[in-house]
Amino acid sequence: MKTIRTFTLLILAASLLFACAPAAETTPAAPTSIAGEYLSTDYADAASLRNQLAFGIMQLDGGPNAITAEQAKTLVPLWQGIIALSGDETTASEELTAVQDQIVTALTPAQLQAIAAMQLTNADLSAFYAENGISVPTPVPGVTKVPGSGSGKTDEEKAAAQATAAASGQTTATGTGQAAKTFLFETVIEYLQGVAGG
Known about the structure:
Elements: H1 2-20, H2 49-59, H3 69-86, H4 93-106, H5 109-118, H6 122-131, E1 134-135, H7 155-167, E2 171-172, H8 178-181, H9 183-196
């Protein structure tokens, strides 16, 4: 009888210890975008999901999956939000992902599938920048240098590059200006405003 009571007390004590023990800490998972359910970056020279969305939306123009006026009205403030958040150094990646997800939900599955089928690359974006008179140096073939970074150049080299581009009539993206970094997003906003009727 004494053995049973001792055994019962040991079990109760062990139960109390486990109940009072702190829970194991878990590392929160990195934010995942629902854009990844439709779009992929698992091919050579793939553009980022956000760039695929922006460029892809414009590429849908004139086709069966073109953005409607109603969609455009919804999308304009979302892309404006992307620009505002991109320009704020305190923005968490989760905030940008949340707005990106709102952009995805404003599109139809057919539109997203059409954008995915384009398999947009950094080389496509480089061509887009070049067509719009923006010089984006690409030291590695097929890799788009982020407009506005200009890292690794002296002030003299930057000034010389800008002077050369100005002489040839090109706009350069070698400064640190926010406009150069967000040119693609500003262009998609202009496009969407046109679709929305103003």
